[in-house]
Specification:
This protein has 821 residues and is of the alpha+beta class. It is built from 25 helices and 21 strands. Strands 1, 2, 3, 4, 5, 6, 7, 8, 9 and 10 form a 10-stranded mixed sheet that branches. A 6-stranded mixed beta barrel has the order 13-14-19-16-18-17. Strand 6 and strand 7 form a beta hairpin. The longest helix is centred in the middle third of the chain and has 38 residues. The protein is globular and about 105 Å long.
Length: 821
């Protein structure tokens, strides 16, 4: 222990004596460690342990139902299914149901809205979350007794901001969706809810859903996909593996299919780790974060190779000192330990500075999320896992950085070192080879990172320019949360029609409409089972089709061409015959491309709707999706007051400039409409491009840093080689060598160091790019333009890095060099 302490003291003295070298090495390591710790904090907080505040989070998982009959797979459960799984799955210690909602707090006119969750009574006990004040829900506050338990648990943030951290808040009432609820307790500050990446402020029992206007009357009695509306988080029983719970859930799903063939045909179930959750952050960011973590690790290896280059140059300059120590009895292990200790000191200092950089950059991911009215949580949390990761990164950085100079110096005999050093102190052939290997590694990895970033950047650019089939420019999108308004269906229809009329008459407005969904949102969208007049489906064919409920003028506002028939009118209400509009893909699939106008659809058991129009195909959930059948129904015939309402207003100028007028017109029509989120339609549609945006932007940053670090490594290797060859260059120039010849010779050495790494990086990129082909849009994994551009850029950087020391070499004064010799 004393010897190790002496190594640390000696290493610190040496590093402090070389502040320039130490600062450069620490800063380089700090950038590499910060990149890794930042990305790891996102991986940890969004994928691995996304429920901070929950006890033993490693035992938590999610239960999902899926059906081949759903256009988008599906991952939710019906309330009755949740109860069946809770009673019958023995591999689970508990299962809790939850769904995200927007709650309106306060009285009409001063209401605000917050995101929260409706949860089953055992929600907090399954998660193991303990309140800091009051209590959570009890086992009795569960079941399907509507309105029986008017209580709520609020977040630490809401308690602090709305109630000024009142220690007596438990027992007070809070007005939620025009109903009085009693605050039962306050959640711990780190707990955010159970939708990874989102932060919620209130939790209310599911039994209050109907009273708060969020559930239909059959919410607790219906089965099948139409009743799916709940996510399920589970805790594994002690000693139960995830695979065992998954097998039991799949087996029980088959039993439900046999028991309820009409509602459960084709439905399966699985227990999955949280990072495979098909919703929220895991669904959007799983693949981007895996890619970014891989690039960050590559970048760290480049950084370590660069620091190893610095340490190697420094160690070579200390060869006489180390040789004397070895001659006086210090063993090779003792010398190696000293060099590794110095590398470890640099890594620890780099980690400390890197943590500061990570804290500064932790909100970068959240800042990239479009402002669509949700509260995002991706901050840096210094927990035990982060500390363990930092410790591992430090150890790996020290080992990678320090093992090269340690191995080089300890494998050389004393006599060889003295002979190799000579009077001039020039480095030996072994150190030349080692530096070449390090530069080769840096260039290879930088090429890999740069090509990957280029492919993702091109894919994102293609996604940005890809037409969604509608015009999203100059459209203001307003999002109402109807559950807090207290509207009946009739009030909803009157409010929508009156607000549309008032907005249409406002200066600068070019068109207004409304719908129950907005295109290219973050959700998979609603669907329904239909029968098509004259179409006979195959035995296993799904007849579930996605649908929107839209008001008059919807297609005109979005500039979606009406190809046949007519648009909806205000007369298409519940008193009129049901009508529908289909898209081109629907007509192509179910009517062989014939004109669908006048044909009929069967909805449910008895209802029938007449097709009155056909519109051009557009994108509904993702800009890269293939054409799919889609249905539109008249808003005033089918919309209910418990969902959401989206108003789309096309303006002649900046849509956000119309926001104040929009709010004023809303209040003039009905002040009870409650809070509304306003954004541009262009911003709303950015959500679906978030995975590509995150991957392209952050990969580009890491690749640029990797390129810079590799260029610095190449420059330092050549600069050091030139400095060691000063006497040789002076003699050559004294014998008649021209400066151009010296310049060419140094540049040639730079190219020789660069080209093998470049070629290896290109070959590795060609192989690895195929693994991410699914994330690329209209870009080949072997895109020649991207590969060529990356290669040319790296060659240019390498030539620049080579030119600077080459230019210095041409300025060597032969007489000065000879006198020094």
């Amino acid at each position: 222990m004393r010897t190790i302490f002496q190594d640390v003291q000696f290493g610190m003295r040496l590093l402090l004596k070389s502040p320039g070298f130490t600062l450069l090495a620490v800063l380089t390591l700090a950038i590499g460690i910060a990149a890794n710790s930042t990305v790891f904090s996102w991986v940890d907080g969004l994928l691995l342990r996304p429920f901070p505040g929950a006890a033993d989070s490693g035992e938590l998982a999610v239960l999902e139902q899926a059906t081949k009959n759903a256009p988008n797979g599906g991952n939710q459960v019906a309330y009755l299914d949740y109860l069946d799984y809770r009673r019958n799955l023995k591999s689970l210690a508990g299962i809790a149901a939850h769904r995200e909602e927007v709650f309106t707090l306060g009285d009409t006119g001063r209401a605000t809205h917050v995101w929260g969750e409706l949860v089953s009574g055992d929600y907090f006990s399954v998660l193991g979350v303990r309140p800091i004040l009051g209590r959570t829900f009890t086992a009795q506050e569960d079941g399907n007794q509507p309105g029986a338990y008017p209580v709520a648990v609020i977040s630490h943030r809401l308690w602090k901001n709305r109630y000024q951290s009142d220690p007596n808040v438990a027992g007070r009432t809070i007005r939620v969706n025009h109903s009085e609820l009693t605050i039962a307790g306050v959640a711990p500050p780190e707990f955010r809810g159970t939708m990874p990446g989102l932060a919620f402020d209130i939790w209310v029992p599911l039994t209050m859903g109907q009273q708060l206007g969020m559930f239909p009357d059959d919410a607790f009695t219906a089965r099948g996909p139409s009743a799916w509306g709940y996510y399920a988080v589970v805790r594994l029983a002690p000693g139960v593996a995830l695979e065992q719970a998954r097998a039991e859930a799949a087996l029980y799903a088959r039993q439900l299919e046999q028991a309820y063939p009409e509602s459960h045909r084709g439905i399966s179930a699985a227990v999955l780790p949280v990072w495979q959750f098909h919703s929220a952050a895991p669904d959007l960011l799983l693949r981007p974060l895996i890619i970014l973590m891989s690039i960050a690790l590559l970048f760290l290896v480049i950084v370590c190779a660069n620091v190893a280059n610095l340490l190697l140059a420094r160690a070579v300059s200390r060869r006489k000192e180390l040789t004397i120590r070895m001659a006086l009895g210090a063993g090779q292990g003792r010398i190696a330990r000293q060099l590794l200790t110095e590398a470890l000191l640099l890594a620890v200092a780099g980690a400390g500075l890197g943590m500061v950089f990570s804290y500064w950059s932790s909100d970068v991911l959240a800042a990239m999320v479009p402002n669509v009215g949700v509260s995002v949580a991706t901050g840096f949390v210094l927990n035990a896992r982060m500390l363990a990761f930092l410790a591992a990164i430090c150890a790996a950085s020290a080992l990678i950085s320090g093992v090269v100079p340690a191995a080089l110096l300890t494998r050389t005999r004393i006599g060889e070192v003295l002979k190799d050093a000579g009077r001039s102190g020039t480095q030996g052939a072994a150190s030349h080879r080692m530096r070449a290997v390090l530069v080769f590694s840096e260039v290879t990895l930088a090429t890999l990172a740069l090509i990957g970033a280029g492919l993702f950047a091109r894919s994102f650019a293609n996604a940005k320019t890809l037409s969604p089939g509608f015009d999203r420019s100059n459209v203001l999108l307003a999002r109402y949360y109807l559950s807090g308004s207290g509207f009946s269906n009739d009030q909803l229809y009157r409010f929508s029609a009156q607000l549309r009329d008032r907005l249409a008459a406002a200066p600068g407005v070019r068109g207004v409409s409304y719908a129950d969904n907005a295109p290219l949102g973050s959700s998979a969208g609603p669907y329904m089972k239909v029968g098509v007049d004259g179409y006979q489906p195959a035995p296993d064919e799904s007849m579930n089709v996605n649908r929107y409920l839209v008001g008059p003028g919807y297609f005109e506002v979005l500039r979606i061409s009406l190809l046949d028939g007519r648009d909806f009118t205000i007369a298409d209400d519940r008193a009129a015959n049901p009508v529908a509009i289909v898209n081109q893909s629907f007509a192509r699939k179910y009517f062989n491309g014939a004109n669908p106008v006048g044909r009929h659809l069967r909805i449910g058991a008895a209802q029938q709707a007449t097709i009155i129009g056909m519109v051009r195909d557009s994108k509904y959930f993702d800009v890269s999706e293939s054409p799919r059948p889609h249905l539109y129904f008249a808003f005033h015939q089918r919309a209910g007051a418990g969902g959401q309402l989206y108003f789309l207003t096309r303006t002649s100028g900046d849509p956000l400039a119309f926001a104040a007028d929009f709010r004023r017109e809303t209040a003039a029509v009905d002040s009870a409409a409650g809070a509304v989120d306003l954004m541009t339609l262009a911003e709303w549609t950015e959500v679906t491009m978030l995975p590509r945006k995150v991957t392209a932007a952050l990969a580009a940053v890491l690749a640029a840093l990797a390129m810079i670090v590799a260029a610095v490594g190449l420059y330092s290797a050549l600069a050091y080689a030139v400095s060691q060859r000063t006497q040789e260059i002076g003699i050559r120039m004294a014998l008649g060598a021209k400066p151009g010849q010296v310049l060419t010779d140094v540049l040639r050495r730079g190219v020789i160091l660069t080209v093998p790494g470049l070629l290896c990086g290109i070959a590795a990129s060609a192989i690895l790019a195929r693994m991410v082909a699914g994330m690329l849009l209209d870009v080949s994994p072997g895109d020649p333009l991207t590969f060529a551009a990356a290669a040319l850029l790296l060659v240019a950087i390498a030539l620049l890095a080579s030119y600077l020391p080459a230019r210095r070499a041409t300025r060597v004064d032969p007489m000065v060099a000879l006198r020094h010799e």
